[in-house]
Design a protein that fits this description.
mainly alpha, about 85% helix, 7 helices, single chain, about 220 residues
Amino acid sequence: MAKQMTRLDEKLQLFSKLVSEMGLRVGEAASQAQQAVADNDMGLMAKIVSDDAFIDQLRSLVESDGVRILVSEAPYGKAIRTVVAGMKIVTHLERVGDMVVKFATLCGVKRISVLLEGCLAMLQYDRQMIDGVQELLDEPDDQKAIQLAKLDDKVDALRLEMDRKLLDIEPKDATDRSALYQYYASIKELERLGDHMTSVCSWIVYIVRGEKPNLNE
């Protein structure tokens, strides 16, 4: 006989769906940003910028819903960990959404192949982390979260490689200098994006174990 859902169970289910929906939206934005920059698609870039407002609204909704659950239901154990972690996770997801928007603004910037390819490679690893987190938001698994966080090492390694390539390029004019600065800013943001997703992984571990490891070391 199936266990009847309590009011807290129902609220937690809705709360978790909202967090998962935000993860899904961020993943879609990252995928679109990768396509927009690869194709230099200004129209798709504009869509990404516009859609980011909904991601921000989802964060506010999750946080408000989480506070209501904490106040009205006084959950304990895994239930309270789910709410606390969810409220922290959406903060990271919202920042990732902002970073994806900034990356999309590489559309229209002078194409420097070696830097463009490197940025897209960094985003590909970041996207793998975002997609992996999306699955873990639906079914938290501490071991999978720890393994997923290790992808950030690949992002960091690419960041170092890209920094060296940036130094090897001599700007010829103001347009080149502006483009190099924008690539540098994007490379930095893509590396930080990986850090945010690693933090999300640590909060997923917290949901399962009740302890939050530092996976960003």
